[in-house]
Design a protein that fits this description.
This protein is mainly β. The protein has three domains: 44 residues, no CATH class; 135 residues, no CATH class; 125 residues, Sandwich (Immunoglobulin-like). Helix content is 12%, strand content 40%. It is built from three helices and 20 strands. Strands 14, 15, 17, 18 and 19 form a five-stranded antiparallel sheet that branches. A hairpin with a 5-residue loop joins strand 4 and strand 5. The chain is elongated and about 110 Å long.
């Protein structure tokens, strides 16, 4: 893998007139240029499709058409298809229960042992040798689970290669009776070029782990009593890892949940209105989390007391991040 820690070629190769060159010298030069290019791709781009690689297929087809394209895997290696290719779909009737079968079509860089010679040449007083190897993309159909809400690869080994970026997903197909039941879907494709628009993601922290204390204040008769914003706040860390941000975004957040609570019973039964001012600590923001602090205010009617933890346990925090 061409990362800085394992880069082998740190010296520029030089030649001089009259030097006797060996095959290893020219192989080293080619390897240097290739590894530097891979290091560039790995450092400045993400794995995915750079251009092309459109996959098309209509209902009833038994094959898909793959257009020429350029892609980069997680090692920075270029996966290039120069001519359109027809690829048969897996010849499977159903999933064994009369339902459709789902597959991801992936592409990967060929292993060195899989490269086929495209040209050989006779040497001077030596046997013929290979001088060109053809780098052809390797396409693989990866069967998915039957879960309609979350199709995942059945084979854990293939799933690991997809998650790591060694296998790039180009399309997803639904097969029934050995033919496409739906047109090819390309929703799962990943673009090697960063999006030109800001990345926006949102989520809800269902059960924030508030560092809270009980807060109560008895009412006086039927008059509402306001517990003002105090010096003590309630803090929690909000997990935003589901947003898959690459850099720290600008966060906004709000409290979700009930504001009106019923307390007591009989003559002492009353309504409690609880709300809070929410503040985000900018210094705590990271691509995967940020910290919030809330300052509660409570109106209690009639006599009785209210534990603010009742509201804290019912409240959720909805967040949104905008990554420039």
């Amino acid at each position: 893998m061409p990362i800085i820690g394992s880069t082998q070629f740190l010296e520029r190769i030089q030649f001089f007139n009259g030097e006797r060159l060996f095959a290893s010298d020219l192989q080293a030069l080619e390897a240097f240029n290739r590894e530097m290019r891979w290091l560039h791709n790995l450092s400045l781009h993400q794995e995915g499709v750079g251009s092309g690689y459109q996959v098309t297929g209509n209902v009833g087809d038994r094959q898909v058409t793959i257009a020429p394209g350029y892609a980069i895997d997680c090692c920075g290696r270029e996966i290039i298809l120069t001519e359109p290719q027809l690829l048969p779909i897996p010849p499977i009737a159903d999933n064994g229960s009369g339902g459709s079968v789902f597959y991801d079509l992936t592409v990967s860089y060929p292993d060195d042992t899989e490269l086929k010679p495209s040209e050989t040449r006779v040497g001077i007083c030596t046997p013929a040798g290979v001088i060109r190897l053809r780098e052809q993309p390797v396409f693989c159909w990866v069967q998915l689970s039957d879960d309609p809400t979350n199709h995942q690869p059945i084979d854990a080994r293939l799933s690991s290669r997809i998650n790591s970026g060694l296998f790039l997903v180009l399309a997803q197909v639904e097969i029934f009776n050995c033919q496409l039941k739906q047109p090819v879907s390309t929703v799962a494709r990943r673009n090697a070029r960063p999006a030109k628009q800001p990345r926006i993601a949102c989520g809800v922290q269902q059960t924030p782990d508030w560092s809270a204390q009980a807060l109560g204040n008895p009412g006086q008769g039927n008059a509402p009593v306001i517990v003002p914003f105090g010096s003590e706040g309630y803090t929690a860390t909000i997990d935003t890892s589901s947003g898959a941000f690459q850099s720290t975004p600008s966060y906004t957040a709000r409290i979700m949940g009930p504001r009106v609570f019923t307390v007591g019973s009989g003559e002492l039964q009353g309504t409690v209105v609880a709300d809070a001012l929410l503040s985000i600590d900018p210094a705590s923001a990271t691509p995967k989390s940020f910290a919030v602090e809330i300052f509660p205010v409570v109106a209690v009617v009639p006599r009785g007391s209210f534990d603010i933890n009742t509201a804290l346990q019912a409240w959720k925090v909805a967040w949104m991040g905008v990554e420039n």
